[in-house]
């Protein structure tokens, strides 16, 4: 049932990775059996553990002190003795460090890039040590699996949640905390850094500020700086929270949080990260409730409105409104590298770059991604690209990433 | 100074229009002198008057009765004796009947399509009687120049503003009121109907439901039905109003209106109707306030954020929040023609169609406009198109309409 070619590939990848554990081979075999039997690829099959990284204080790029800091992280694969097989995954705006695998066998879904992370997969856990961490001010502060530090965290100096006293943090701060996390494990360089959307901003930043530490960079669905239009949309994402009286100037941790405003913010993000091809083809003009014509009253809905409401309600349960505002600010402030000159910041990237994007992206428009490619490539830095096909717009960078799988595999395998 | 060719054109257009008033010729001359002298075209030069059309009751397509109804209208040019030189202009979501000219010489700006409406212009007021009316539930209910009927209007049966007791109205209702307005002037058929965005929906509806009355149709930046994604965005536009506690379930006419929520709704509309090319090129990453780095606090803004705030504040002064919600509903409910079958509705259009759109439209996506073109053209209805160039996305349908000017002129002049 298993084709000979496939078995030899499994063995050869086992050889390449040094066969740190025979179990990887077996997992790979099981995974590939699954592919053969069902036509569906599976990813990382080990149960994933969430770890905590703590710092005894961190000074932000803005010069403010956070006396104690924690972020969650998880890893797939094994760190080799040389500690040179590390791929860092940086997460998107509403994402977490959960890039692959399941915490328990009962989890409804695996991490977001499970399609490309696992034994024998493009980000091959037989070969690489793949690590991902929750950012500071992570959106999903109430998710028990997310560990982050931000406005919802207790300020040790007051014993109260920070609220808006928490300092402004930047994509650069996210990178600095990741660097400390890696150094804590003795990791000095990265085989690659890869991230989608806000994760791509972190990837640009890593490659620009620490060119000697980053051997390859894979930015997905992102461009090299936040510009006026994105800054404006980020502001609009934040707005419903501020309109909600329960937001109370950010001081709501002892009262009702601004759930309605947060839900509407998350709805905007859901909409903009998607595309009409998916929405129209999937939901058309169907009614939310059988027999209730949307024309019958101002309140009566179309199905797609209800779907957006339900998604927003669900996402809001684990999200914190102030964290969303801080993420908005971090993204608005982003320019690759130090200072405000995006061209110089992108020119400082020397690592071979694999750019992955979608022509239908309504958050980071494809023309701006292509400008970023040109700027990185201008001084001779090699840049390859994969254009994803799909109906999900921006989200295809998460949902359709397997289309880029073989290109990613070759890119990671190639010597630099 | 005036070239002979131009004078002869002016005379010939005077002859074509029957020279109902010699003043038109003089205005045309002045206008064209201005073109020659400054290289800038001017539009309608007569002072514009706002008129009121009243109905003694109107039954909506949903079967509900509005006992008394008023809408404002204005006209440019002169209705000929045969009453067969009429062009109806239908307005966009946040627009009004003020399509051309000025109410007083001191007006800061003329009506929105002044570039193409006027003596000698493509919509030539020497030849055509161009009429535009405010829709029901017009957004700008507080604008002294707007006359509309909607939730902010007094319900004669209670003496109080209608609020959410006002019935749901549709694009079809807007068309029915326009039909009554035209019939009141003895007008039975239209040389053309032309409208942008929500105005294009009215144009489709006119041409589909009254094919015998519409000789030509010019839909600008719009497609033939609201689909899921647009329905979702319209819902998102409405959301900040509903989050604002001052909205109070629509009952705010004796208290503070939901200004903050309304402003955020209008900001979303402003953003989506624009495009990154304009925002980025115009505002880049400039700071709102000199010396106040947006990184310095959560509140500190980039210039584009402040511009959006200022525009929204300004627009909210004359807008009514409930009217916005009713417009959202009317647009969500839109399918060309009677019933839910957009293909049948568009197929019923027999009038030659000139479709004008932008490849950068983020409200009515170009692929959906092209689908609409195909559907109208499928049974042999002639459809021409003009693709506008610009940096304003959807808004180029208003701001860059003069690019289509000569095509519009020829389209209107051609016999059908």
From TrEMBL, chains A, B:
Q: Which UniProt keywords apply?
A: Acyltransferase, Amino-acid biosynthesis, Cytoplasm, Transferase
Q: Does the keyword Secreted apply?
A: no
Enzymatic class: transferase
Which subcellular locations apply to this protein? Cytoplasm
Q: Name one GO cellular component term.
A: cytoplasm
Domain named AB hydrolase-1 is located at 170-394
UniProt cross-references to Pfam families, sorted A to Z: Abhydrolase_1 (PF00561)
* Top-level lineage group: Bacteria
Keyword Cytoplasm belongs to the record: yes
What would you give as a GO molecular function for this chain, any one?
A: homoserine O-acetyltransferase activity
Q: How does it assemble?
A: Homodimer.
Instruction: Report the sequence similarity comment from the record.
Output: Belongs to the AB hydrolase superfamily. MetX family.
Q: What is this protein called?
A: Probable acyltransferase
Q: Give the source species.
A: Pistricoccus aurantiacus
């Amino acid at each position: 049932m298993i084709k000979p070619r496939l078995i030899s590939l499994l063995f050869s990848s086992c050889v390449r990775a040094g066969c740190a554990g025979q179990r990887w081979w077996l997992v790979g075999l099981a995974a590939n059996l699954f592919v053969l039997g069902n036509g569906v690829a599976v990813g990382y099959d080990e149960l994933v553990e969430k770890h905590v990284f703590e710092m005894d204080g961190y000074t932000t790029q803005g010069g403010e002190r956070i006396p104690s800091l924690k972020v969650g992280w998880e890893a797939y694969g094994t760190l080799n003795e040389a500690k040179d097989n590390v791929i860092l995954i940086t997460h998107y705006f509403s994402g977490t460090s959960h890039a692959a695998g399941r915490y328990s066998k009962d989890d409804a879904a695996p991490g977001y890039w499970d399609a490309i992370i696992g034994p024998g997969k493009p980000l091959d856990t037989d070969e690489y040590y793949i690590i991902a961490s929750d950012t500071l001010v992570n959106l999903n502060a109430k998710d028990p699996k997310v560990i982050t530090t931000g406005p919802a965290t207790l300020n040790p100096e007051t014993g109260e949640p920070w609220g808006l006293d928490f300092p402004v943090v930047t994509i650069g701060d996210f990178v600095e905390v990741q660097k400390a996390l890696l150094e804590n494990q003795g990791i000095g360089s990265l085989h690659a850094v890869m991230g989608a959307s806000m994760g791509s901003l972190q990837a640009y930043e890593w490659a620009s500020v620490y060119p000697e530490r980053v051997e390859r960079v894979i930015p997905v669905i992102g461009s090299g700086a936040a510009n006026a239009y994105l800054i404006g949309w980020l502001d609009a994402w934040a707005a419903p929270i501020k309109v909600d009286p329960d937001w109370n100037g950010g001081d709501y941790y002892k009262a009702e949080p601004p759930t309605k405003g947060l839900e509407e913010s998350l709805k905007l993000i859901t909409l903009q990260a998607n595309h009409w091809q998916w929405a129209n083809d999937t939901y058309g003009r169907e009614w939310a409730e059988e027999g209730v014509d949307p024309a019958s009253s101002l309140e009566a809905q179309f199905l797609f409105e209800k779907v957006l409401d339900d998604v927003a309600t669900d996402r809001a349960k684990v999200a914190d409104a102030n964290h969303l505002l801080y993420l908005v600010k971090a993204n608005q402030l982003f320019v690759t590298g130090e200072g405000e000159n995006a061209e110089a910041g992108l020119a400082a990237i020397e690592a071979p770059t694999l750019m992955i994007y979608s022509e239908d992206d309504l958050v980071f428009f494809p023309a701006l991604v292509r400008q970023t490619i040109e700027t990185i490539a201008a001084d001779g830095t090699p840049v390859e690209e994969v254009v994803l096909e799909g109906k999900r717009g921006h989200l295809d960078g998460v949902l359709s990433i397997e289309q880029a799988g073989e290109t990613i595999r070759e890119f990671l395998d190639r010597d630099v």
